Amino acid sequence: MTTDGKQLHHFVFGGELKDLDGTEFRDLNKIDFVGIFPDYQSAVTAWRSKAQATVDNAHMRYFVVHLHRLLDPGKEPK
User: Fold this and answer.
1) Cβ neighbours of 17 (radius 10 Å)
2) Distance between CA 18 and CA 9 in Å, rounded?
3) H or E segment at 4?
4) Phi and psi for 24 in degrees, rounded to 5?
5) From CA 37, how far away is CA 67, in angstroms rounded?
6) Tens digit of pLDDT for each residue in 33-75?
7) Exposed site from 9, 12, 31, 36, fewest CB < 10 Å?
8) Strand, helix or coil at 62?
9) Which CATH number is 10-71's, of 3.40.30.10, 3.40.50.11810, 3.40.50.150, 3.30.70.2400?
């Protein structure tokens, strides 16, 4: 999603969790930094690809972070 032609950056990363109910990683040195994407849809496409590729490991989780909200928390897209 873009607003007025501006990029709304999203970050995709993942790794193996210590506990299925948490978000603490087993080994921070093994975090998979997938990338930064210019919009939500392309980030979700990358997330889905990584999540499907690791479906056999129940402890693997990938996340989409809305970087644009962290960089400018006072402004939400219209």
Assistant:
1) 17
2) 28
3) none
4) -90, 130
5) 10
6) 999 999 999 999 999 999 999 999 999 999 999 998 887 766 6
7) 31
8) strand
9) 3.30.70.2400
